[in-house]
Amino acid sequence: MAAFFSGLSEVVKGNPRHEAPEPLEGPVVATIVGGTILWFALFLVQLPFYGWFDDRGHTWWLWTCLAGGGLGFIGIWYVRRRDTAIKRAQAEQAARTSETVDAAEAASGTPEAGPLRGPAPTPSAD
Prior knowledge:
With 126 residues, this protein is mainly alpha-helical. It is built from four helices and no strands. Helix content is 68%, strand content 0%. The longest helix has 49 residues, at 60-108.
């Protein structure tokens, strides 16, 4: 038991034994949209039974579903902006990388083969 708490104290002090893993990326926007639709669907399915929920003191079930759908709209807005920002940052990084490569080629005077440039020209014997 002492070993558990000694290891825990290292983590609390900021000395973790392992690095944090990279975050998992997936279809985030689609996941949030699907969850939001599910919350609203649950709200609409339960709505005709409002009286039954009210008689038993369980109307919070309906309002929880409605709140989940409302918060889902905020989540959709957030993840769409996040996705756009990530794509913009990747595009800027790619542009900076290509500018660096172009500047290096211009400085060396020898163009390299590339997907848009084709093979490097060969000197002719004329």
